[in-house]
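User: Structure please.
Assistant: Input sequence and predicted structure:
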Amino acid sequence: MTPETLLNRVSKALDQSVLRKGVLFHEDSGAHLLRHETPTALDAAVYRPLLCLVLQGAKEVGTSAKTLTVRAGQSLIVSHALPVTSRITQATPQTPYIALVLPLDLDLLRSLSHAVSPSEETRPSDPFSIHLCDTDEDMKDALRRYLGQCGTNAARRLLAPITAREIHARLLLGPHGETLQKLLWHESTASRIFKATRDIQTHLAKTIVVTDLARSVGMSNSAFFEQFRAVTGTSPLQYQKELRLLRARDALQTSSAKVSEIAFFVGYQSSAQFSREYSRKFGQSPREDRELALVG
């Protein structure tokens, strides 16, 4: 009998859901399973700390500062909440794009990190919060076992937590480890920028004062601005604007609130300015975007 692969396992779960294209939330495991049979247009979203493994096909993902191509057999981690654009670039009905996205448990990573020796690598590393590498067979096997264990109540309670721990341990021990360790060190630049991004998200409607943000994470204004851009690919003000527009889009598509109410809720004082920036970002006005979502 041919051993089951992670691709087989994910494809089977998608087939059982009768999902031909789109995103399936695999409730038992907390993972998202994706399948697309054709390339897609650019889509904007907020990526929170996660692992994304492309099993078949290819996609592009990035910010205005940098775009990465993720091919079959490669994985990326996103260490900070990040507004990104992405598109599927390689997919056909015969060989669809298939991927698995698993949220990172930062508390679990932090509990394991003390057992991992710091890297002795002295060369400067890229501070950007998206890191791409090839995925080894041991990681694929751990993810395959984890999805299988989440299929029954007993295994989900007893075995899946152990395998989830293994997956996070392998992330720390593998090529993604350096990026994650920098995030987990309490006084590292990555951890300070993480705190700043969390503050922006928590108080999204509040006007940003860069001086206050820098002071709150113990950095000078110039160092904070430089490192924020290096980690997120954008400035603090642009980061906030992207988050506001993405949250507004979600509210437009999931609520019946007026456009003006949503604009005010995410921090805009002017509905006209909100509509202009929304149209520039998504290619249609807030009302047009809501109507398209209703039709879809």
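The chain has a mean pLDDT of 91.
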